[in-house]
Amino acid sequence: MVSWHSIPALLWIFLALASPARADRLAISVLDEDGDPVEHAVVYARPVGAASSPAASGVHTVIDQIDKEYVPYVTAVQVGTTVNFPNKDQIRHHVYSFSEAKTFEIPLYEGTPAQPVVFDKPGSVALGCNIHDWMKAYVFVTESPYFAVTGSGGGATIELPAGEYAVEVWHPELAGKPSSASQLISMNGAESSLSFAIEKKRVWEPRRAPSRDGAGGYR
What we know:
Elements: H1 7-18, E1 23-32, E2 42-47, E3 60-62, E4 64-66, E5 69-71, E6 74-78, E7 81-84, E8 93-98, E9 103-109, E10 117-119, E11 123-129, E12 137-142, E13 147-149, E14 155-161, E15 163-170, E16 183-187, E17 192-198
Parallel strand pairs: 1-17, 3-7, 6-12
Antiparallel strand pairs: 1-14, 2-13, 2-15, 4-5, 7-10, 8-9, 8-11, 11-12, 15-16
């Protein structure tokens, strides 16, 4: 028979068992070969020896089209995520991708397409616009639910439960494969940090067309 005095102790044990596993912060810094911070780098952690994570379900995100540019320039999502492409300009855009991880096309439109795009395979997806050649953006699709994108200072943080992870970096200008610079780390209840130095390659960037009034950008 359980005494009344033992109920508080039993309650604490129950709450401890029912609480989700604690996540600890992994701070990641990404630099290029010259030691300069790398913005728009995707950092992601793959659990070592664990079963594959289930695809995302009911997860949505947005890539805007503002002033004839994609915003944000790089988006990281988990496999199964749906992405909407609202057009906030007063002209039509034509979104497309011929990438192996996702091939799709949203013909000329204004406003928001009725159907979002489901990114159902891992890999990098380059976006373009058939009307404005300079409009470029990237979606990096990962099977892991643990990822982030670096800011202007080259830094990002990921919250990770205890365990061992292989951490990798992807960037649109990365020379080589992300696995070539993979680092292992064990998370065991304390904040940790990693630093990556990646080599970047030259990528051709189409120039934005000048406007008729000289204000910059095609109108």
